[in-house]
Amino acid sequence: MTEPIDVRERMEVCDLLLELGPDAPTLCEGWTTADLAAHLVLREHFHRWSDAQRAVEKAKGLPAMVARLRAGAPLIPWRLPGIRNVFNGLEYFIHHEDVRRANSRDPRAPMADLEALSWRMVGYSARRVARRIRPYGIELVLPDGRRRRYGSGEIVTLTGPATEFVLYLGGRRSAARVTLSGAPDAVAALERTKTAI
Asked: CB neighbours of 114 closer than 8 A, spacing ≥ 6?
């Protein structure tokens, strides 16, 4: 049986956090690897949290936070069959890449399950961004030629793997491996619009 995406990404980011230590940079502005680990722990175990709670979690040390992450998320809602990857798969993928790419790691080889999940889920972000850049629209084009269009009018086209769309539309523009093309005004509208959702 194939390991769920959320488990695989969780374990791999845990390994990387311990390898790099608590003070390594991430793509999350102002956050170190310790901040990111605290965020992941708090996200799964509390409904709301503050900077003060993140500081309390960080004070426990990176090994303790990673041990809590390795133990897995609570069953509800994070591990329910059929929705676990929707809730946690892309969250862990994005934060894994936040750590990898901020520390000069190359993108990983494509993984079919992660690409399929990303292609399925990226439409939510693309729709929101398309609304923000009206009267322009966005088209996403995969390397195999599959495409989706959001919005209308002149179009900005993003070309690349679905996982890279997730990163780009999730606010990791400088790290995402996508190509932008299309109407100059539409490209400019996208470039000046906040994409982190």
From this structure: 5, 9, 89, 93, 163
What CA–CA distance (Å, rounded) separates 56 from 38?
9
> Facing residues of 193 across strands?
none
Do both 66 and 117 map to the same domain? no
**Structural domain ending residue among the three candidates 102, 126, 149:** 102
Do residue 35 and residue 54 come from a single domain?
A: yes
Give tens-digit pLDDT for 100-135: 999 999 989 999 999 999 999 999 999 999 999 999
Residue 60: closest CA among 32, 82, 34: 34
